[in-house]
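Friendly challenge for the regulars: who can give me the structure tokens for this chain first? No prize, just bragging rights.
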Amino acid sequence: MPEVKTNLKPNRLINEKSPYLLQHAHNPVDWYPWSNEAFEKAKKEDRPVFLSVGYSTCHWCHVMERESFEDEEVAALLNDHFVAIKVDREERPDIDHIYMAVCQAMTGQGGWPLTVIMTPDKKPFFAGTYFPKFSRYGQPGLMDILGQVEKQWRSNREGIASSGGRIVRAIQNHLRSEGPGHLEEDTVHEGYSALKKSFDPDYGGFGSAPKFPTPHNLGFLLRYWKWTGEDEALSMVEKTLQAMHDGGIYDHLGFGFSRYSTDRKWLVPHFEKMLYDNALLAMVYLEAYQVTGKEQYARVAREILRYVLRDMTSPEGAFYSAEDADSEGEEGKFYVWTPGEIKDILGPETGSLFCRLYGVTEKGNFEGRNILNRIDAQARAADMEEARRKLFLARERRPHPYKDDKVLTSWNGLMIAALAMGSRVLHESAYREAAIRAAEFIWVHLRDERGRLLARYRDGEAAHPGYIDDYAFLTWAMIELYQADLKPAWLRQALELQEEQNRLFWDREQGGFFFYGCDVEELLARPKEIYDGATPSGNSVSAHNLLRLARLTGRQELAAMADTMFQSFAGKVEDYPAGYTHFLTALLFSLVPGKEIVVVADYEAIGDDLQPLWSTFAPDTVFLYNLEEEEYKGLDAIAPFIRGMTSHEDKPTFYVCQNFACRRPTTDVTEVRTLLQ
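First reply, four minutes later:
Bragging rights claimed.
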């Protein structure tokens, strides 16, 4: 964690569990968490509210804290004339979502730290991101901004109130995601064409710097290739996956991906590592392996999962959120090297070879030091694994970046899904066991006494009613766990979560799911997020979940909800299809004639029969397992259409169903795999 000045008297944040809020608990600023108490104080004392939103591994959040929030002069101005509120965007994405929309509407850009000033009734009238203490290089300083706002608050209250009201009305209109229409195949083709147009043929990825991995773009392209046979779609995926892995955005010693690249080549990352990126990237590397059979993609997926299980897993089996970009007060210091350091550890001969292979020079590629990368390297030398291991162990002795050890339900859902998929595709039971441990942790520790899903767990406390992403991503995880572990209990849990999500989040008038439930604090607006940004949106994942659950259970009312979503969000998606690639993935799932494969067998008799099927890329297919052992029974209560399906000749028997009709059963797994391909 960034250095905390514990000699100062703590403020109210000392009682919070959020690592980000605790980082500010000894600031001289009289911070409040988001609470009725803070807004009541603002009303009583007639003060504007200063809202600062960030997260614990955010580099510029640390910079603004050092420059301003640890500064007595800034603190005095805030304490005397404002009520200051700190929010962890990862704990309260609902607050962040709304006020980030305000910032983007007012300034044309966004990011963290997010800075918003509002009236005591939560109407914003000023927004921005990072500000230095004093104005410089044409950028306004926080002291100047606060001083001007304080004067305006005293002299132009009516104007401020009017401005805040206009902004609120504009944001409420903006956050209404409906744009009714009808999505067809043309929208899918337009999404592909837009990605193709923005593709970087030299280094992969889309657009120029900065570059984000955006795994759902790649997953969409794989499905587009499967659907159309368009080889260029697959080529774009392979080029991007190879270039990202070769770049400095990948940790070549300890594995795992950083959040994004600051340059076009994927060389210089923003060094923080996020759980969600690594979960989503593991899945797309696994799918690329299914498509191509190339072991390099399986190896990267294994390395990502190895990193998470080694460094990002709690003793109880849940997954931590992130690792910071900074260590010892410097961004990237943990990860960079000089040639001398490498040669001291590996010896002059091996060290020189390693430097050539990983782009390490005396000049350096990052502030005089070197980010390891393979961008210009030839084929990997066979004996570099031992060198990697030695350098990794040496790096382990360095001061580590801060680890945000809170457990987020949504991001855990993504990692559970990735591990479950990895267990199937790579035939690795340890991944399945890790996924089950995490799922059981969530089910036990992240629900309240009524069974309501909660969003965050840390230091023995679960808090904050779950958001749409928590429900959608965990439902995805339960579906993947059922596909991997074969037990109907996971499918029952997926249905239970989906039914609760429908009750709490569904818009009964327009369709689609709101960002937060009907049973919690109402904010300025109740948005419905559909844009697939750093992660797929909760609505995109939900549309896919509904369709898969409909296929798995025969409950067509679930598919009808997904159809309503396609109509409700059509206008938004048609405006820019490439911004909604996971939603297009769900649309493709509905357009392509899908398959249900029912496996009827004795569990012990299955053996390796499923492996040829699981190693096949069949994104339009779901599997049901009608097994005879006690812990696998009960599927017919969830999926009544499987009743009467029996095994033949005491062998595992496969029923392949499509368009509400099933082929004759077969015991020939090769025949089934051919149908999948």
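Residues 595-676 form one domain. The mean pLDDT is 93. Your move, everyone else.
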